[in-house]
Amino acid sequence: MTPTAWFAPLLRPELAALAAYVPAPIPPGAIRLDANESPWALSDDARASLAEALARVPLHRYPDVRATALREAIAADERVHPDAVVLGCGSDEVIGLLANTLAAPRPGAAHAAVFFPTPTFVMYRQTALSLGLRPHSVPLDAAFDLDLDATLAALREHRPNLVFLASPNNPTGTLFSADRLAAVLWAAPDALVVLDEAYAAFSGVRYAALAAQHPNAGRLQTLSKVGLAALRVGWAILPPALAAAVEKVRQPYNLNALSQAAAVHCLTALRPEIDAAVRRIVAERERLAPLLAAVPGLDVTPSAANFFWIAVPDDAARVAAAMRERGVVVRSFHAHGGSLTRRMRVTVGTPEENDRMLEALRASL
Ligand SMILES: Cc1ncc(COP(=O)(O)O)c(C=O)c1O
Q1: Does domain 44-267 have CATH number 3.30.70.2740?
Q2: End-to-end Cα distance, the chain
Q3: 224 CA → ligand 1 middle, Å
Q4: Most ligand 1 atoms within 8 A of CB, residue of 203, 222, 266, 306 to mutate
Q5: Quick count: other Cβ atoms within 10 Å of Cβ 103?
Q6: pTM of the entire predicted model
Q7: DSSP secondary structure string, 139-208?
Q8: In the predicted model, is pLDDT for residue 3 greater than 90?
Q9: Is residue 25's pLDDT more than 90?
Q10: Domain 8-37+272-364 belongs to what topology?
Q11: Residue 104 above 70 pLDDT?
Q12: What is the pLDDT of residue 23?
């Protein structure tokens, strides 16, 4: 954009601080351990049954606005009312729907505020800024758990409308202490506290019981990390009255009919295969943890997710580039600066991919 473009004065000023998400190109044949995806494709049998289910989708009709079958499958799984579920094109979209819905500034404030600890999932900040809300954050503590004193002080100071807590957290892979999560829920009774369960399949820890005790709690879930990233299906489980408000903001056809049908098939008929893939990833994480910890010079944070948070001895950008040269793509956090300059995140792959990753990592240090 040139500074003289006719639309420059019309742009929301916060956009100047944002960059569009442009992933680095992936070298052909490289092992991709940068996006927290599952390394396991569906089996041939599963693909065949999915193809049959998708062939029945009436493509000449608009999708079901309420995604009734998918909504009911999720509600049955989670033992909630179907009206508690808000579906989106990935949980990314749902984060945007929540921010767009809860966007009214508090009395006396110019902007609505959003709070999250750092480092965490970048879309909380990105989405807040792009929708004109103000992001506020405090660093996690030395163990990458919530720093409760700093968090409670920030809640008092900024009075956020929305609080995002991913547990396990991305990129640290850590679970936040249950008592600290509960303390945040108590401390922000007039904010929506979103417990983001994107990686809960790998920790086995869910927050249904905690959320049930707090009318200000919501949960966020996605199919992306358990082997279905291409579907773009995520959802929130909210108090139904709040879900009804969010439904006013949601585009009626945000979830296409093929994704709806595929998600239903995966949550029902293909469920055993999806769950088995998650178990394989967890088993591989447990195999990999001591091997990574034994690499001299690394500081590896114990992971409850499907990735590892690793400090390398020097600039993570250099190490990640050297690994890339060896055909293994990982995610460096050097660009965040400060204590993250030496940090990178490595997704758990197949056993063969992980062995090649270890080799590439040792050779790149
Ligand atoms: C904590 C967390 N929440 C939500 C998401 C968004 O996932 P999706 O939009 O694919 O559902 C991610 C993706 O990386 C994540 O790490």
Answers
A1: no
A2: 39
A3: 7
A4: 222
A5: 17
A6: 0.97
A7: E--TTSS--HHHHHHHHHHH--SEEEEESS-TTT-PPPPHHHHHHHHHH-TTSEEEEE-TTHHHH----H
A8: no
A9: no
A10: Aspartate Aminotransferase, domain 1 (3.90.1150)
A11: yes
A12: 82
What amino acid is encoded at 164 in this protein?
Answer: F
pLDDT, residue 297, reads: 95
- Does the beta carbon of 166 lie inside 6 Å of ligand 1? yes
Q: What is the pLDDT of residue 324?
A: 97
Query: How far is residue 296's CA from residue 362's CA, in Å, rounded to a whole number?
Result: 9
Q: CA dist 280 to 138, 202, 276, Å?
A: 35, 10, 6
Token pair belonging to 107? 């009395």
354 lines ligand 1 (CB under 6 A): no
- Six token digits for residue 1: 């954009």
Q: Locate the domains of the chain by residue range.
A: 8-37+272-364, 44-267
Residue type, 348: V
Ligand 1 within 6 A of 167 CB?
Answer: no
pLDDT at 14: 87
